[in-house]
């Protein structure tokens, strides 16, 4: 059966017990998702981390049958599937160790836009928290960031609605399939977001919201954001989990200080006290931290050079990684890009000839 590569990429995410790490391992050793399913059990068990049970689970006929059902649902709903090797897959996520191997996406927004901001907080938002959120979004309007949140009650939905009012694209990251907007009362706002922002999840259509899926959703919000702002939060909760992920991913984190006796100020004050967040006092704090004033309307000389040249899809994928990290060892670059070392060496040589990168001692490479 001659099926598109995306079908087999989707199939990899349908195998029970096979997550992102093993999927990358399989892709690295086999070269493509379709080759994984053309392999035998004997070949698969030679791959580190793949035992006999996992190998047989991968090749079980039900995997492809379930994949066909998923593909049909996505086509019916107008849902786009983005595998982590896809050029439209968010570059901010791709370099993370726990990046979702597959994303499900609806919307016109650019997932690789220059500026993103995550706004999160308690579901029990106060008038103070709602006002701060609305003013923050309104005052960042001229910088045209994409506003990212979780479509939940409280601060999340205030951030999304304030973005729509200000004409800013906003993305809702969901802990369910895209056909199940949770909570349902936010369905209308979710539909409005599809006009100029979008909805995103790592869960296939039909997956219902579940408590264990929300922390995983929070890591995507953090990973997509250049800065995460916690407006209001209790001593424990999803907003603090998002802030923790953001710190682990080396994102900027800000917290809005609150009244000492207010429950939903405890989390923000704790983040500031423990130096896990900078104190937010005005929108300019964000602008200055991210150098948005200095970069507005400007293109760095190196970027102009890159824009003037034409690259293959694989070369563009490699260059996206170099923009995220100053230098790479060829083995790590191969693992991150899922391009075999033999092929990667040729790609790197071509980029050297174009004057884009240079080789360093110890099989390392650096962007010029």
TrEMBL record:
All copies of the Helix-hairpin-helix DNA-binding motif class domain together span: 10-29, 42-61
InterPro entries for this protein: DprA, DprA_WH, DrpA_SLOG, Hlx-hairpin-Hlx_DNA-bd_motif, RuvA_2-like, WH-like_DNA-bd_sf
Q: Which residues form the signal peptide?
A: none
Among Gene3D superfamilies, the record links this protein to: 3.40.50.450, Winged helix-like DNA-binding domain superfamily/Winged helix DNA-binding domain
SUPFAM superfamilies listed in its UniProt record: MCP/YpsA-like, RuvA domain 2-like
Q: Which domain of life is it from?
A: Bacteria
PANTHER family in the record: PROTEIN SMF (PTHR43022:SF1)
The entry sums up its family as follows: Belongs to the DprA/Smf family.
Protein name in the entry: DNA-processing protein DprA
Natural source organism: Larkinella insperata
Q: Species lineage, top-down?
A: Bacteria, Pseudomonadati, Bacteroidota, Cytophagia, Cytophagales
């Amino acid at each position: 059966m001659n099926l598109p590569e995306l079908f087999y990429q989707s199939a990899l995410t349908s195998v029970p017990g096979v997550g992102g790490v093993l999927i990358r391992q399989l892709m690295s050793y086999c070269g493509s998702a379709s080759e994984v399913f053309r392999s035998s059990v004997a070949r698969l068990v030679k791959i580190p981390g793949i035992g006999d049970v996992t190998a047989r689970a991968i090749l079980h006929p039900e995997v492809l049958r379930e994949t066909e059902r998923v593909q049909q649902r996505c086509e019916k709903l107008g849902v786009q599937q983005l595998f982590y090797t896809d050029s439209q897959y968010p570059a901010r996520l791709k370099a993370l160790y726990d990046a979702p191997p597959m994303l499900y996406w609806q919307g016109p927004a650019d997932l690789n836009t220059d500026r993103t901001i995550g706004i999160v907080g308690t579901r029990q938002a106060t008038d103070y928290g709602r006002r701060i959120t609305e003013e923050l979004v309104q005052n960042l309007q001229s910088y045209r960031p994409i506003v990212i949140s979780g479509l939940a009650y409280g601060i999340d939905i205030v951030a999304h609605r304030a973005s729509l009012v200000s004409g800013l694209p906003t993305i809702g990251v969901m802990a369910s399939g895209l056909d199940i907007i949770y909570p349902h009362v936010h369905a209308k706002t979710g539909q409005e977001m599809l006009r100029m922002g979008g909805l995103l999840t790592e869960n296939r259509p039909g997956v219902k919201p579940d408590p264990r899926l929300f922390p995983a959703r929070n890591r995507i919000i953090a990973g997509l954001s250049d800065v995460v702002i916690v407006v209001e939060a209790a001593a424990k909760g999803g907003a603090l989990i998002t802030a923790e992920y953001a710190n682990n991913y080396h994102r900027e984190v800000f917290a809005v200080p609150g009244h000492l006796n207010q429950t939903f100020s405890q989390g923000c004050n704790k983040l500031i006290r423990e130096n896990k967040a900078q104190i937010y006092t005005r929108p300019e704090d964000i602008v200055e931290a991210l150098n948005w004033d200095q970069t507005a309307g400007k293109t760095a000389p190196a970027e102009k050079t890159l824009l003037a040249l034409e690259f293959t899809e694989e070369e563009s994928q490699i260059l996206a990684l170099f923009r995220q990290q100053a230098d790479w060892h060829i083995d790590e670059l191969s693992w991150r890009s899922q391009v075999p070392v033999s092929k990667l060496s040729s790609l790197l040589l071509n980029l050297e000839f174009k004057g884009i990168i240079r080789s360093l001692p110890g099989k390392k490479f650096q962007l010029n």
